[in-house]
């Protein structure tokens, strides 16, 4: 095998030079009871798109659940972003799968560590597939060897992985040689890895590959001259690589020639770990020597040898090898995708030379002299599909009318519940700056999703408007929505974006300690994109009665949604999400430049009506009908309004004056309708000051219940009903009828039953459950007090569930819909 030196110009293929390839016989099998290629992969291969194989042993016998799900999502996303189609290969229920759906991949990753989930090489494939006929259903993660043979059967030529197996140290007596090497000698698939694992005998591994007729080259990766074959975590091994590969174009040309010549052995392209993620050889060699010594002392051999040594190296390195593993695998898969893309270009040129031009794939010709780094990071590939973009377009079939529209985050949620060990110094709260033992659960979540799900469970027709990435997490989320019976027409898929994720860390009492959220997919939206993607199609549908918006949108986009709600005269609800995001409701309001003097209605009672009207400032419409903050979010809203002088505008003063609050204040009445402790905390006082912007505020107080603070309109029934009289703490007496204020309503609605600590399973999603059921009841035209009562009962059910929104919420459907 002769490799070209220097920057390689992409070859132009003539008709005659491609005749050999056109007549080349290829081993292919069609889908049958033992072997299935996914529809996406079949279509990509038929259209000559770049397809990259991925192994699954790293998911079943490497990374634990749910880390393996996250890694699977990352690697498939890397392939799609760089213009390829991922083909994850493994065994499910005794059937070899080439390309897995999100639910299939999740099913496989969840089975990691189970006795029926095996590590599968060439020798094992017929055993696990044949076992299905005998009633033995096995799952399996395929090794490099197992993945290569299944990829070749499907017609896939490029495979990205982590580290190659090899000749073990002491193999002259143990004969411990990885099947990966013999597979490379007989299966024509190009493998891109970070060399072989560094605890193996690298010189003998290269000698064995030479004997098997395997072409081996290492990417120069910015270096000049001959380079070392990499040693997995280290870029150098002290052993020179047989060949040096300059770039992906050169690698693709070699693969193309290999198949054109019908050479039935594989190729190994070694990709050194990125420089910034390398663990130097001088640091790794002593750790490897110690791990091998302990393995020999404990007799860890055969199948147990590699897992033992890897675990011991992880321990000895203080965990440094784990992030290095992730980075090198990601780098290898990215490079494999670019190679597959360059190979598709060569094959497209061949088809053109033969007069067969496919309209399915239009390759972008990149400069052969561009750097490897530039091509590795090239993510804008016109003409190469990175997955369909699903827009919430309105089809010709009329969609069912909805009562509630929810706009906001759809995310993958991770709930981490602290489980202290016997010797833990703090039995309640996790320790900062270190790892803590926990029970970690993964569910479909996101504030808007949870709200929509709660409303859906109690029978309200609801549409969720959100965005997901074109990745495993996004596709799994879409499938879960469809399976639950919820509408998905409002979900748009955005290529080159990450599906939102939320990680909650709870203490031993299941109370939230801290949370981390990646909601950037929503925060990059613009007002015009919201209009084009969602609002224009919605204008053709029946209007919803209620619009709920969460705080994950940017402030301008948030107000675009709220403006839409006002335009259709729908009840609008704002769920603040967090203290940091709650203030987005106010961030688009410019602070007053001055505070001009004016007379209130009460101070100008002696003036004529016409004079008084001229002096009174106009009333600014509320920003939103209703908000559901907790005490921290309420405080954040109040602090922002104070610091930005929002309580100093003439319109605000006019509304507050119209409430009729006596000069003696409301401390005593507030203590009677709530509790002295709540008043001492200033909660109702803060809510009252915010009423000109949010006329109904429901502050969630946890076990204490929900504090209702409401600006009553002049025609509000509460002003006349005897059962509400004690909650009406002030009435408009200044004669300012145009202010639209009738009085002030304050009421604490306590929870029906306070749960014990043993009954609480998870606090995640209880506020979202509350908002969803609240909206469902209000959209039926029922009283706010009844809505709050049912919403609190629903939140209590979610408190007792591992899911963010308990399925038992559906038991309230009869009460909501009656």
TrEMBL record:
Carbohydrate kinase PfkB domain mapped to chain residues: 432-517, 758-806
GO cellular component: cytoplasm
Segment forming the signal sequence: none
InterPro entries: Indigdn_synthA-like, PfkB_dom, PsuG, Ribokinase-like
Pfam family, one: Indigoidine_A
Region feature Disordered, mapped onto this chain: 585-624
GO MF term set: hydrolase activity, acting on glycosyl bonds; metal ion binding; pseudouridylate synthase activity
Source taxon at top rank: Eukaryota
Keywords from the UniProt entry: Glycosidase, Hydrolase, Lyase, Manganese, Metal-binding
Keyword Translocase: no
Name of this protein: Carbohydrate kinase PfkB domain-containing protein
């Amino acid at each position: 095998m002769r490799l070209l030196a220097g920057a390689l110009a992409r070859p132009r293929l003539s008709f005659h030079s491609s005749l050999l390839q056109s007549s080349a016989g290829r081993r292919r099998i069609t889908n049958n009871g033992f072997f299935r290629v996914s529809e996406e992969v079949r279509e990509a291969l038929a259209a000559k798109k770049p397809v990259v194989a991925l192994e699954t042993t790293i998911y079943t016998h490497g990374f634990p659940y749910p880390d393996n799900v996250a890694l699977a999502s990352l690697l498939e996303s890397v392939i799609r972003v760089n213009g390829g189609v991922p083909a994850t290969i493994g065994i499910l229920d005794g059937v070899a799968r080439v390309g897995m759906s999100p639910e299939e991949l999740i099913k496989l990753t969840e089975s990691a560590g189970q006795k029926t989930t095996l590590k599968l090489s060439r020798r094992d494939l017929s055993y696990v597939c044949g076992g299905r006929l005998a009633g033995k259903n096995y799952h399996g993660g395929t090794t490099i060897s197992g993945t290569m043979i299944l990829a070749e059967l499907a017609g896939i030529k490029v495979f990205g992985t982590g580290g190659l197996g090899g000749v073990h140290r002491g193999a002259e007596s143990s004969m411990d040689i990885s099947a990966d090497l013999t597979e490379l000698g007989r299966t024509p698939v190009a493998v891109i890895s970070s060399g072989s694992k560094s605890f193996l005998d690298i010189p003998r591994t290269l000698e064995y590959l030479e004997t098997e007729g395997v072409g081996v080259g290492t990417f120069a990766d910015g270096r000049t001259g001959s380079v070392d074959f990499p040693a997995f975590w280290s870029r150098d091994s002290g052993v020179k690589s047989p060949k040096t590969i300059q770039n992906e174009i050169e690698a693709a040309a070699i693969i193309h020639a290999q198949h054109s010549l019908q050479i039935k052995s594989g190729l190994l392209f070694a990709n050194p770990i990125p420089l910034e993620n390398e663990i130097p050889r001088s640091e790794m060699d002593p750790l490897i020597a110690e791990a091998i010594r302990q393995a020999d002392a404990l007799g860890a051999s055969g199948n147990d040898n590699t897992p033992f040594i890897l675990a011991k190296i992880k321990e000895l390195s203080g965990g440094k090898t784990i992030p290095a593993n992730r980075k090198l695998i990601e780098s290898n898969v990215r490079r494999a995708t670019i190679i597959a893309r360059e190979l598709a270009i060569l094959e497209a040129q061949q088809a053109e030379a033969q007069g067969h031009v496919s309209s399915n794939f239009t390759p972008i010709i990149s400069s052969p002299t561009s750097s490897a780094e530039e091509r590795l990071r090239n993510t804008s590939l016109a003409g190469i599909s990175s997955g369909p973009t699903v827009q919430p377009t309105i089809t010709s079939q009329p969609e069912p009318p909805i009562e509630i529209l929810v706009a906001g985050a759809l995310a993958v949620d991770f709930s981490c519940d602290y489980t202290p060990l016997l010797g833990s110094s703090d039995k309640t709260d996790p320790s900062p700056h270190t790892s803590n033992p926990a029970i970690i659960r993964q569910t479909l979540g996101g504030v808007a999703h949870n709200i929509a799900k709660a409303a859906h469970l109690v029978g309200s027709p609801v549409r969720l408007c959100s965005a997901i990435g074109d990745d495993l997490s996004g596709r799994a989320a879409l499938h879960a929505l469809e399976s639950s019976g919820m509408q998905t027409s409002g979900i748009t898929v955005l290529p080159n974006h990450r599906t939102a994720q939320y990680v909650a860390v709870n203490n031993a009492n299941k109370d939230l300690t801290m949370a981390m959220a990646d909601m950037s997919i929503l925060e990059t939206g613009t007002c015009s994109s919201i209009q084009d993607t969602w609002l224009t199609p919605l204008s053709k549908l029946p209007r919803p009665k209620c619009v709920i918006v969460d705080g994950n949108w940017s402030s301008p986009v948030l107000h675009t949604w709220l403006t839409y709600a006002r335009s259709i005269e729908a009840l609008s609800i704002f769920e603040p999400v967090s203290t940091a995001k709650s203030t987005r409701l106010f961030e688009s309001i410019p602070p007053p430049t001055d505070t001009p003097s004016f007379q209130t209605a009460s101070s100008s009672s002696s003036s004529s009506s016409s004079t008084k009207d001229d002096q009174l400032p106009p009333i600014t419409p509320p920003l939103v009908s209703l908000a559901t903050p907790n005490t921290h979010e309420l405080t954040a809203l109040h602090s922002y309004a104070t610091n930005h002088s929002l309580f100093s505008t003439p319109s605000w003063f006019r509304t507050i004056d119209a409430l009729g609050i006596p000069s003696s204040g409301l401390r005593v009445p507030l203590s009677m309708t709530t509790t002295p402790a709540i008043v001492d905390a200033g909660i109702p006082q803060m809510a009252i000051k915010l009423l000109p912007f949010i006329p109904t505020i429901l502050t969630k107080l946890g076990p204490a219940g929900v504090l209702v603070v409401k600006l009553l309109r002049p025609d509000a029934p509460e002003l006349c009903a005897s059962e509400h009289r004690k909650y009406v703490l002030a009435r408009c007496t200044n004669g300012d009828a145009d202010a639209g204020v009738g009085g002030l309503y304050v009421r604490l609605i306590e929870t029906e039953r306070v749960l014990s600590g043993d009954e609480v399973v998870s606090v995640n999603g209880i506020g979202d459950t509350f908002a969803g059921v609240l909206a469902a009841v209000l959209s039926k035209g029922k009283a706010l007090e009844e809505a709050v009562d049912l919403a609190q009962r629903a939140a209590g059910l979610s408190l007792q569930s591992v899911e963010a929104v308990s399925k038992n919420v559906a038991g309230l459907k009869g009460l909501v819909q009656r």
